[in-house]
Amino acid sequence: ALARPARGLAAHGETHFGFQTVSEEEKGEKVYQVFESVARKYDVMNDSMSLGIHRVWKDVLLHKMNPSPGTLLLDVAGGTGDIAFRFINYVRSVRERQLRRKLKHHQNLSWQEIADSYQEEAIKPLGDSQVVVCDINTEMLKVGRQKAEHLGYSEGLSWVVGNAEELPFGDEKFDVYTVAFGIRNVTHIDLALQEAYRVLKPGGRFLCLEFSQVTNPVLSRLYDLYSFQIIPVLGEIIAGDWKSYQYLVESIRRFPPQEEFKEMIEDAGFLKVDYQNLTSGIVAIHSGFKL
Amino acid sequence: RCRLCPPQRALRAAAALRRPSEEQRKEPAPSSSQHHFDSHPADEPPEQGTQDPWASYTGQDGQESEDSASEEQLQHRILAAALDFVPEHGWTAEAIAEGAKTLGLSAAAAGMFRSDGSELVLHFVSQCNTKLAELLEQEQKLVQLGETQKKTTDQFLRDALEARLRMLIPYIEKWPQAVSILLLPQNIPSSLSLLTSMIDDICHFAGDQSTDFNWYTRRAVLTGIYNTTELVMMQDSSPDFEDTWRFLENRVADAVNMDNTAKQVKSTGEALVQGLMGAAVTVSTAARARR
């Protein structure tokens, strides 16, 4: 078993990398190396570590977002594109439903008008919705773009390299900002939250899907056992990389619990901040609005 | 955490938020809280301490309750703006998104509300009830000042119910959808309390001062009249809903008759009893005198 060190920082300019203490500059580099090495097996490892449940978590995130056609989404640390692809699917089906409902309402349409509506559906299947996937790691983005090609996603998708603490976008550009399982790897979480606030339009929504503190004590012990004994072993067998998965599991323990993270989000200026626990708190979705 | 945050947060607030709170500073908390279906205002009174919410830092609590009061306000403004889009989109999250857009906010702000449109319907019903109460109060003042004649009970009830039902006319096409939303199990406590408080208001202004079981009977009867008239109105296609008002007239007349009959029966019963008692005393006195 591993000793669990206190969450506080040792000294100025130092931070945690899993259970180690490193300087702030080093952390960024080390995280980069972790994701560079796991990039190709990232999706496979996600499935085996969470027994496929991560797909349900991401679906719940999209349902909570409930995006309407015309939404501009920024998915930060979105590397392999899971959230982006789900967003596109969601918006496409909402758009189809909208067009179908419009047709149903206008009972006495001429043939010309009906044909025109088909055209509209063909030209704008997403209704001007766009998603920008931003990640600091080019390897992860590469894997994401290959996946997109493979699955046939072409429209409404952009891939940008960028640092969550210093986003390469102008102010007030996006409707929704999501970060799924990425924010715990950021060196200065408060800077990332401030950047999120900056790039969101007024009325925009911040959504964060992240591992959090388990509420149930029995489940907590099982979860700890699973995390520290089984996941690194899986990492070694499937990805050939014990240490990266050791880091991943430790970084989960270092991330602040739900209430504390909620206060951090409020400090960045978001209002109506709330969180929803999934799977008894193994994962939590935090939501806030820029009002 | 940084103590400088509250005023910073205040400065960053969007113009949409700042404007209403400046108007609100002069007025006390809205008196519609008696019709309010949300438990939020009861928990956090907005009149704590500061008169000038954006200038000085008065304490975390004061700032937080100011924020929640202005969040409430903004939500009301979004819902009020969304009502314009109900004839087109129905009582849905899409209407709320369109409403948010007219206020200059992103459509993602509709995520603040539940995705089934319930809050929009409840907001509208609450608003109608408030308007009705104001109308009845004004009328009462005019009667007290002697400027208008006091109406008979059935005329008063007819006019009050007609005024309330006329508020539905702009949305009458989508009203069946609203009724179905109000009947959803999670909304029944709120919708029921709104209905009962509206009927209570009408009875109160009609001058009902009963302290016996009549209090319940009168309100139950009036609720029945309102609900049935609402249903008739939804499928009425006559010009200016004449059929509905005729139906209402008949129902109110029936109810008032029934009430009068009940009073008559009671007073007849009392008179009968008195008569019998008198006869018994006369007979016994006469019998004693003869002996």
From TrEMBL, chain A:
<protein>
    <submittedName>
        <fullName>COQ5 protein</fullName>
    </submittedName>
</protein>
<comment type="subunit">
    <text>Component of a multi-subunit COQ enzyme complex, composed of at least COQ3, COQ4, COQ5, COQ6, COQ7 and COQ9. Interacts with PYURF; the interaction is direct, stabilizes COQ5 protein and associates PYURF with COQ enzyme complex.</text>
</comment>
<keyword id="KW-0831">Ubiquinone biosynthesis</keyword>
<comment type="function">
    <text>Methyltransferase required for the conversion of 2-decaprenyl-6-methoxy-1,4-benzoquinol (DDMQH2) to 2-decaprenyl-3-methyl-6-methoxy-1,4-benzoquinol (DMQH2).</text>
</comment>
<keyword id="KW-0949">S-adenosyl-L-methionine</keyword>
<keyword id="KW-0808">Transferase</keyword>
<dbReference type="GO" id="GO:0008425">
    <property type="term" value="F:2-methoxy-6-polyprenyl-1,4-benzoquinol methyltransferase activity"/>
</dbReference>
<dbReference type="InterPro" id="IPR029063">
    <property type="entry name" value="SAM-dependent_MTases_sf"/>
</dbReference>
<dbReference type="GO" id="GO:0032259">
    <property type="term" value="P:methylation"/>
</dbReference>
<dbReference type="Pfam" id="PF01209">
    <property type="entry name" value="Ubie_methyltran"/>
</dbReference>
<dbReference type="InterPro" id="IPR004033">
    <property type="entry name" value="UbiE/COQ5_MeTrFase"/>
</dbReference>
<dbReference type="InterPro" id="IPR023576">
    <property type="entry name" value="UbiE/COQ5_MeTrFase_CS"/>
</dbReference>
<keyword id="KW-0489">Methyltransferase</keyword>
Automatic annotation (TrEMBL), chain B:
<dbReference type="GO" id="GO:0005743">
    <property type="term" value="C:mitochondrial inner membrane"/>
</dbReference>
<feature type="compositionally biased region" description="Polar residues">
    <location>
        <begin position="48"/>
        <end position="62"/>
    </location>
</feature>
<dbReference type="Pfam" id="PF08511">
    <property type="entry name" value="COQ9"/>
</dbReference>
<keyword id="KW-0496">Mitochondrion</keyword>
<feature type="domain" description="Ubiquinone biosynthesis protein COQ9 HTH">
    <location>
        <begin position="71"/>
        <end position="101"/>
    </location>
</feature>
<feature type="compositionally biased region" description="Basic and acidic residues">
    <location>
        <begin position="19"/>
        <end position="28"/>
    </location>
</feature>
<keyword id="KW-0831">Ubiquinone biosynthesis</keyword>
<keyword id="KW-0446">Lipid-binding</keyword>
<dbReference type="Pfam" id="PF21392">
    <property type="entry name" value="COQ9_N"/>
</dbReference>
<comment type="function">
    <text>Membrane-associated protein that warps the membrane surface to access and bind aromatic isoprenes with high specificity, including ubiquinone (CoQ) isoprene intermediates and presents them directly to Coq7, therefore facilitating the Coq7-mediated hydroxylase step. Participates in the biosynthesis of coenzyme Q, also named ubiquinone, an essential lipid-soluble electron transporter for aerobic cellular respiration.</text>
</comment>
<protein>
    <recommendedName>
        <fullName>Ubiquinone biosynthesis protein</fullName>
    </recommendedName>
</protein>
<dbReference type="GO" id="GO:0008289">
    <property type="term" value="F:lipid binding"/>
</dbReference>
<keyword id="KW-0809">Transit peptide</keyword>
<comment type="subunit">
    <text>Homodimer. Heterodimer; two heterodimers of COQ7:COQ9 come together on the same side of the lipid pseudo-bilayer and form a curved tetramer with a hydrophobic surface suitable for membrane interaction. These two tetramers assemble into a soluble octamer with a pseudo-bilayer of lipids captured within. Interacts with COQ7; this interaction allows ubiquinone (CoQ) isoprene intermediates presentation to COQ7 and facilitates the COQ7-mediated hydroxylase step.</text>
</comment>
<dbReference type="InterPro" id="IPR048674">
    <property type="entry name" value="COQ9_HTH"/>
</dbReference>
<comment type="similarity">
    <text>Belongs to the COQ9 family.</text>
</comment>
<comment type="pathway">
    <text>Cofactor biosynthesis; ubiquinone biosynthesis.</text>
</comment>
<feature type="domain" description="COQ9 C-terminal">
    <location>
        <begin position="188"/>
        <end position="258"/>
    </location>
</feature>
<feature type="region of interest" description="Disordered">
    <location>
        <begin position="13"/>
        <end position="73"/>
    </location>
</feature>
<dbReference type="GO" id="GO:0006744">
    <property type="term" value="P:ubiquinone biosynthetic process"/>
</dbReference>
<dbReference type="InterPro" id="IPR012762">
    <property type="entry name" value="Ubiq_biosynth_COQ9"/>
</dbReference>
<dbReference type="InterPro" id="IPR013718">
    <property type="entry name" value="COQ9_C"/>
</dbReference>
